[in-house]
Amino acid sequence: MPMKGINRLTLREQVWTTLRAEILEGNLPAGSRLGEVDLAEQLNVSRGTVREALRKLQQSGLVEGEDRIGLRVAQFTPKQLRELFAVRAALEGLAASTIVTQGRGSEVADLLEKNLPAGADGKSAVEVLDEDLGFHQILCHESGNEVLLEMWNDLQDRMRVAIMSDASAQRAELMSGVYHQPIVDALRAGDPEKARETLNEHMRYAGEVWAVNREKQASRVDED
């Protein structure tokens, strides 16, 4: 009789995994309140288990607030969005210039061109975002800088929450193949500084769009 595999995840880790997935897929949108009692009842676990899972999510930047006033899914401010994309610009700009300096610009450009985001037609928001972030993750991976890739991966969950919280028409533009093509072209051109600057501009513009849209969202809420 074959033995069943052992589930090595603790109950806290299972709750954390479930809540993290709900947040990243947009089922718990930015700003959603996360009440311990309600979550414990829905997941059929103790409040203590939920509290531990929420604390871990808070440490990773997906949840914000204080226990005594309540926790919620992180809702990034315009300042935080600009800072997030500034960090991405630094990391990905370094990745791009490193690749070109290594003499691998054309090789990686070919790889990225095969993985350009293909557009939003017939896809869910999560699928579109997966393609976008997948493109940028390949760029970081191909730099060969393991610390850089680790730092980029550490930001990925926050990037997902930040982008999923914006439902504007500009989201499709910023995650299109057309918007990413200049990165491919810059790598192929073989100039490390041009490659770095192209990534800086790509991220600066995207960060500013998300930040301005967040300001508009906040303004509408205040008016209501």
TrEMBL record:
InterPro entries xref list: GntR_C (IPR011711), TF_FadR/GntR_C (IPR008920), Tscrpt_reg_HTH_GntR (IPR000524), WH-like_DNA-bd_sf (IPR036388), WH_DNA-bd_sf (IPR036390)
Example GO molecular function: DNA-binding transcription factor activity
Protein keywords: DNA-binding, Transcription, Transcription regulation
Domain HTH gntR-type, residue spans: 9-76
Protein name listed in UniProt: HTH gntR-type domain-containing protein
Species annotation: Schaalia turicensis ACS-279-V-Col4
